Structures are given as C-alpha cells and as structure tokens.
Amino acid sequence: MTKISQLPLAVHLPDDETFESFYSIDSGAISGQLKAFINKPAVTTNGFYLFGQQGVGKSHLLHASCAYASEMKLTSLCLSFSELKQLSVELLDGLEQFDLICLDDLQLIAGNNEWQQAVFDLYNRVIEQDKKLIIAGNNPSNSLLITLPDLESRIGWGFTEQIKPLADEDKIKAIQVRSKLRGIELNDETAKFLLNRLSRDMNSLIKGLDTLDKASITAQRKITIPFIKDVLF
Fold first, then answer.
1. Predicted pLDDT at 13
2. Residue 137: what are its φ and ψ, rounded to 5°?
3. Residue 132 per-residue DSSP state
4. For a designed S-S bond to 191, which of 20, 132, 172, 177 qualifies (C-beta 3.0 to 4.6 A apart)?
5. pLDDT tier at 107 (50, 70, 90 boundaries)?
6. H/E element holding 62?
7. Taking the domain 4-162, which CATH number applies?
C-alpha cells in the first residue's frame, strides 16, 4: 500500500492552476496533448516529459494535469523533488495505484543514484499497471546529468515537449488571462506597468497578482497603477 498518508508534504493543488489559466505561445497545443495523454488509453507510452527553464509554467501544467484528471474521475498526485529528495525513496512505493502521477523538478536528483533507481522502478510499475506518469525537469532528458542510463532512456521513450519562455508582450497576456479568471479586468497599461516594476519572471508576476487580488478585495478597490504603487512599492 502507498505511504501517501504518511507524506509530510502539502499535496493540495493551487485552485487557479488549470489548463484554462495557462498561457503560452502554443498553450492550446500542449494542453491538448496532455489532456489526450491523460484521458486516452496508453497505446504507445505511459510517460510524458516536460522540460524548460525555471518560470515557464511546468509546475502549472503538472497541477493542471491533476486538476483535469480529477474532472475525468481519475485519481492523481503531484509531488516535487524539492521536497521528496530530503525524504526516503520508499515514499514512491505504491504510487502506481494512482491513475496519474506527476513528479516535478527531476533535475534535483541528478547524481543521486538511489532516487534515480526509485524513479526508474516507479516508471516500470506504472507501465505494468497501465497508469500514467508526467515528469518535469529543466533540460532535455539527455542533458539532465542523470547517471542511471536506464532512467534517461525510459524518459526519452515517452512523449516529450519543451515549454518555451514567453516574450514580454506574451507575459502581459498571461497575467491578463489569470486576472480575468479571478474576475479582475487588467488593462494593457496596468499590466505593462506591473511587468516593468516587478521581476519579469512569471512566478514573481503571479505572486504580485495574488497580493494585489487579496488587497483589492480587502480595500474594495480596482487594481489600477496608483493602487499597485500603494500595495507593492
């Protein structure tokens, strides 16, 4: 049986990280591929590997995949090696009982043979049970410094997609999509001001939007440039 009930981790999902709130140049294509992978029988592969630099939305897509699996009445779990690598590899035992397992930050186990073997073994159990595994990392599978050749090969056998960074104009659209889903109308001038005044990575922009959203509810004010200055600067 899985040891998931013993995991000292926050395994809940952000409620706003769905496929609908994900924006990229080809967001429709990647969302469609992941939905098809989750919802259809594993004819060719049980694995999907996402890679891209920090802040491009890999974690968002993993969370969105789990949210979609739930909509499809499938069981799922999303975990990150930023938490797992400090714990016992036995925590992966039994996870193949879930219909979908998502593992984030694979690059963090580079050089750790014990964890690499554990992931490889999990991958094999997922195949045996005909479940699905989505893994995310910061580089292509052959550039992760994975020292277990079998694991590198296994990841390379599945579907692979690169998530590319957004240009500034696309970041503006991305935060406008997220804000609209929260019932906030963020015009171009206000969104551009936010981009120019915060760190330009998406994580910082979304955190800033979160802060503004809560502050606007408390103050009963619209998010305008003067309001942004009052709250964030």
1. 57
2. -150, 175
3. E
4. 172
5. very high
6. helix 58-71
7. 3.40.50.300
